[in-house]
Amino acid sequence: MIPSFIKKTFLIILVSYLDYKISYGLSKIYVILPLTFLAYTFFLYKSDYSVGPLESFITGLFVDLITNSYFGHNAILFCFASYLINTYSNTFKLFSYFQICIFFGASATAYIGFSQIILNLYNFSYLTLFLSGIFNIIFCVLVAILSVYFPSISTRKI
Amino acid sequence: MARNTPSPGQKVTYFIFIALGISILYIDINSKIFSSVKNNFQSFKISSSFVLKNISVNPLKKFIELMSSKQKLLDENTMLREKLDESYLRNFLITKENTFYTNHTEVVKEIKDDLVIESFHFAKLKQIDPNIFNCCDRHRIYIEILDKKNEIFKEAMVFNRNGIIGQVVGDGSQNEVILLTDVKSSIPIKNSRGDFFCNAKGSGKANLISCSYSQLVWIDEHKIGDSFYSSGLGGIYPKDIKLGELTSIEIINSSVTKLEIELVSSPLDTNFFGVIKI
Question: Model-level pTM greater than 0.80?
Answer without folding.
Answer: no
